[in-house]
Design brief:
The protein has 2 helices and 2 strands. It is mainly α. InterPro entries: DUF6435.
């Protein structure tokens, strides 16, 4: 597994998994989304630019979540 340094200074593991287990992936993404939103809310008063970056990252995770759920249900989602 390679490590990936994101813009806010945390280290994440990057894996080259396929979507064989969408339920497991969605639970990880849901947890990551809630953590990003919570962290963005916590730093909102002290560092607005970091908070904006964290909210943007959370929105990316949310889009991934929605696309995985739409593919799992064979739905065609339009945004």
């Amino acid at each position: 597994m390679n490590t990936h340094f994101c813009k806010v200074g945390k280290v994440r593991n990057v894996s080259n998994k396929t979507n064989n287990e969408p339920k497991k992936d969605t639970s990880k993404l849901e947890k990551a989304y809630s953590n990003q939103i919570e962290e963005a809310y916590n730093v909102k008063q002290t560092d607005a630019s970091l908070s904006d970056t964290l909210y943007h990252e959370a929105q990316k995770i949310k889009r991934q979540l929605l696309s995985i759920k739409a593919n799992a249900n064979n739905l065609d989602a339009a945004f």
